[in-house]
Structures are given as structure tokens and as C-alpha cells.
Amino acid sequence: MKEEHKLFLLADTVIRGLLKYWPVTNCQKEVLFLGELEEVLEATQAAEFQRCMVPLFRQVARCLNSSHFQVAERALFLWNNEHIVSLIAQNRNVILPIIFEALEKNIQSHWNQAVHGLTVNVRKMFLEMDVELFEECQRQYAEKEARAKELEEQRQLTWQRLAAAAAQGG
């Protein structure tokens, strides 16, 4: 087996291993895992990146929205790495829809100013990469938010009706 092919299989295995054992209750370990992830991604080629990018960026999106500012900040630092940005740019059609909501939530409500500022920068980077894709993600996000608001209003109305019926019957 060629050395290149072994490395191809190894990067995907290592990234999936990191994701499988991701520490969900220990923020300091999560920061360390993000650092290790960056090291592995630094040595990852486009083809192997594509094999694991969906589960990888689902986890990155969760980290972006972490209330622990060091976790969110460390996840956002991935965009400071040129090689990783290049991999992301090549696969933005898949990655941006996965993380768009996390970016929007940070901009709307993350308590930490540094995380907020870094998120604005990453969002701007995506906008500059592909305006059309960005606007499509924005449109889908707005529709999803409108549907959620509508469902919440219907739920409130149902509770009001139930409360009124209970008051009349009781």
C-alpha cells in the first residue's frame, strides 16, 4: 500500500475518532480537542477532508455555539488557518449550510464580545466567498425562524384555549 493512501485512510480515521470521543462535559478538554483537530486538518488533503466534513462541521457548529467562550473562540480560530480555510472554501456548498445557523445565533446572542467579533469575521469571509450561497442560507434560516415562531404562537394559542376550557369546565 502506498504511503499516501495510508495517510488518506489515517486522517479520516483520526478525525472520526476525535468526533467519536468528543468531550461533551469538559470544556478544557474540548479546547484541546479543537487544537488537535486543527493539527490533523493541517495535514489533510481535499479528498480525505470531504469524507468526514459533514460530521466534522456539525461538531464545529456545536462548538461555535458553546456558552464557554474558550470553546467557541477556539472553534472560530480554525478560520485563521489558511489551509483549513482553503478546504472550507472548496466545500462551502456543504459546510456553510451546516454552520450558518450557529454563526447567526452567535451574532444575535453570544455573551462574549471576542466570540461575537470573530463570528462576524467568519460570516463576512463566507459572504465574500460566495454571495449567492450566503443569501440562500440566509433565506432558509429566515424561513426556519419564521416557521418556529409560528409554531410557538400556535402552541401558546392552544394552551390559552385549554386554560379557558378548563376554567369554564372547573
TrEMBL record:
Coiled coil location: none
One annotated GO biological process: signal transduction
Entry's Gene Ontology cellular component terms: protein phosphatase type 2A complex
InterPro entries: ARM-like (IPR011989), ARM-type_fold (IPR016024), PP2A_B56 (IPR002554)
Gene Ontology molecular function, alphabetical: protein phosphatase regulator activity
Family matches, as Pfam families: B56
Protein name, as recorded: Serine/threonine protein phosphatase 2A regulatory subunit
